Amino acid sequence: MCIFCKIINHDIPSKVVYEDDEVLAILDISQITRGHTLVMPKEHMDDVLSCPPVLLSKLMCVAQKISKELIEKLDAKGINILTNAKEIAGQTVPHFHIHVIPRYNEHDGCKITFISSQDPQLDTTLKALKK
Question: What is the pTM of this model?
């Protein structure tokens, strides 16, 4: 049983932010920023790629609800909502979860950077995706 399944079963204590029959949201133990929350399905699934679309929609609705509360109650100035699928993308726990990371300022401890690769195969990629 994975660590998140143990948390969902309340075998491991956590700080619950939201819970219903299908979804659990807890404060991340690492708290990249104050209020950093993990939203996860109660049913075990490895990652976003294996999540049924209806449940994925519900998880995103919960992430949005929590985001609005973090902005209102903690005076966050913005939110990052992200998930990682597979180890190469940074997934460290093999149970689908969404990070909701409140942002307070540009020096709040969270840095997400996108660097253009200037990929010469952009057109080939686009053609492959349109098939």
Answer: 0.90
